[in-house]
Automatic annotation (TrEMBL):
Phylogenetic placement of the source organism: Bacteria, Pseudomonadati, Pseudomonadota, Alphaproteobacteria, Hyphomicrobiales
Pathway listed: tRNA modification; N(7)-methylguanine-tRNA biosynthesis
Function, in words: Catalyzes the formation of N(7)-methylguanine at position 46 (m7G46) in tRNA.
Organism: Aquibium oceanicum
Binding site for substrate: 141, 173, 211-214
Protein name per UniProt: tRNA (guanine-N(7)-)-methyltransferase
Pfam families to which the protein is assigned, alphabetical: Methyltransf_4
EC number in record: 2.1.1.33
Xref: PROSITE patterns: SAM_MT_TRMB
Catalyzed reactions per annotation: guanosine(46) in tRNA + S-adenosyl-L-methionine = N(7)-methylguanosine(46) in tRNA + S-adenosyl-L-homocysteine
């Protein structure tokens, strides 16, 4: 993601929210579909997250910063009995996803189009079976590292809302951010890195559909790392 500090919301972990103008179909979906799928954080969160969905679900997962939604859409199809909550503040990505989700008739998804920390603070304790954070903005300049989503406070948030045994998955093509994440995880008492060999972080996740961003990174010679951590 580009570094657009001047256009981001104060204190947020993301950059710009608006890019190219939306196509008419996307704009219509934002007006008509997004309100029905958006979570209302001004109301108390349900004690049971399954109650957020219009179809029966056995577990609920969260994907933070889903980009164009390739993975999120793929997961909602693979696991119809799992509820997915997707967070994406970038308008173009959200619009692309809701058009695709609407056309596919997805019912097991809810959305949040602002800062993920507010959502994390809203969610009940131990309600999530997993959290995915794929290719987050690396904020490459050292003075901006405080904007990286992986930090001690956010790992505390993750630990509060994840069930014991739940998995936090992190993918990035930026080696320094991968190292940063491992350092933060290793000093956090509630998470454990479960890799036993190099193949465990070099190999994509089971059923991984790939993303356009990932394909671009590989073309440019940046190889991703796929990390998995378990909530103790």
């Amino acid at each position: 993601m580009p570094d657009n500090e001047g256009s981001r919301a104060a204190g947020a972990f993301f950059g710009r929210r608006q890019g190219k103008p939306l196509r008419p179909r996307q704009a219509s979906a934002m007006d008509e579909v997004l309100p029905a799928l958006s979570l209302d954080l001004d109301r108390p969160a349900p004690a049971t997250l399954a109650d957020l969905f219009d179809v029966p679900v056995d577990a609920v997962r969260l994907e933070i910063g889903f980009g164009g939604g390739e993975h999120l859409l793929h997961e909602t199809e693979r696991f119809p009995r799992t509820g997915s909550i997707g967070v994406e503040p970038f308008v173009g990505g959200m619009a692309k996803f809701i058009v695709a989700a609407s056309e596919a008739g997805r019912k097991n998804v809810r959305l949040h189009d602002d800062d993920a920390t507010r959502l994390l603070d809203w969610l009940p304790e131990a309600g999530l079976s997993g959290i995915d954070l794929f290719y987050p903005d690396p904020w490459p300049k050292k003075r901006h590292w405080k904007r990286r989503f992986v930090n001690d406070d956010n790992l505390d948030r993750f630990a509060r809302v994840m069930r014991p045994g739940a998995r936090f998955r992190f993918a990035s093509d930026i080696g320094h951010y991968v190292d940063w994440t491992l350092l933060h995880i290793r000093r956090h008492p509630e998470f454990e890195w479960i890799a036993a060999s190099a193949d465990d972080w070099r190999r994509p996740y089971e059923g991984w559909p790939g993303t356009r961003y990932e394909a671009k990174a590989k073309r440019e010679g940046r190889m991703p790392a796929y990390l998995t951590f378990v909530r103790r």
